Amino acid sequence: MKLLPVALAVTATLSSFSTFAETDPLDNIQLDDQQPLVISPQSDIPDGIVFSGYARYGFHFSDDTQKYVSADGQLIGNAAGRLGNESNGGEFQFAKGFVSDNGTIWDVVVMLEHWGDEVGLKKFYAGATNVFESQPNAYIWAGRDFHNRPQTGLNDYFWMMNDSQGAGIKNLEFGNVKFDMAAVAQVVDGGGTGDSGNYAITSKLHGINLTDALDLSFYANYGFSSKNTETDKDTQTCTGTGADKQCYVDDIDSYQLALELNHSVGMLSNKFVARYGNNVDNNIFNKTEDLSTLLMQLEGKLVMSNQTNIEYLVGYQSLEDKNASQDDRANYSAIVRPTYAWNNIHSTWLEAGYSLVDFDNQSGQNDAWKVTLSQNISFDMDSGARPMLRFYATVGDSNTEVDLTRGETSKQDTFAVGAMWEAWW
């Protein structure tokens, strides 16, 4: 199950997707723009334990076997839209800050997650800032953390999701530009304490202000494996016998390259994302030889008044696998969500979305559409205000001409109603 804990950089106001509360950042040592908030020498560390998190729980009734609306084989997250189309879960985080007599500032953070039948450990890391006189704002960390996981909100898609354990440094400053770099390992399958044998070097160059309205970030990640890769133990090649027997696995390297362009002027804000993956999709550790993926997305928000917003997303992702060309496909997605606040308590949202999966080497397409009407009771008038109580109804349709698992065609009409509580804090 995907985790849902991040904020959208498209807009200064929060939209309806998972993130922690955007209160005074000095009082919440957690998330800011897809990453753990990086403390600095200017941070005012609060006393005691900081409790933060994201959660959504409720009921969802559907009149069909397909509870949620999606196109089989889609690649861009919840490509027909997430409103009234997502399951339950949450993340619960505790953090403690420390100020040393030598001037360094520390934080220790732990997070538990609940997106399935069990509660698991998602984070446990420590970090320090004001360590180097020449780089006082640099933040050095080690442990297990959300890592390299930017997200778009309307489709709830983590277009990179490289959560892992390791160590790194954030906010190395070169003039006005900042640089992050880390060496990380995938956690062993099942949530143990060890490494799976898949590793990565990740980097991000950010804070590139092209104009007052445009800023740019670059990502570059490289993945590699040891000869004890957990997923490859059953496919080892062995030579010799007895004491001379030697076994090894072929190492598959991978890389991701991405850019993120943010544009904000007046009441309009947009984020454009482009990402290329070689031997990987959005996770640098989950490698497939001779796989290539390309993603392009535009997500934005137009604030028409204090009461009315329009949020929108268009996306495209392609997948080409030389060893399984029957799976080659492209996913096209479009979502629009107008919102209207009747007052600072009650609001009405309408979300319409469409997802099309077009296969290159098979005759057929899969598609899905949905429309969701949601009546909300929220903490404030802004569409990002939480907590929120949400009462919704969804109608939708999915048509499967190419079934990747059973080889069957099908068509399903979905009507669903539900109630959900959602909050970040």
TrEMBL record:
Highest taxon listed in the record's lineage: Bacteria
SUPFAM superfamilies named among the record's database cross-references: Porins
Where does the UniProt annotation place the signal sequence?
1-21
Gene3D superfamilies cross-referenced by the UniProt entry: Porin, LamB type
Q: Where mainly found?
A: membrane
Q: Does the keyword Repeat apply?
A: no
Q: What family does this chain come from, according to its entry?
A: Belongs to the porin LamB (TC 1.B.3) family.
Q: What is this protein called?
A: Outer membrane protein S
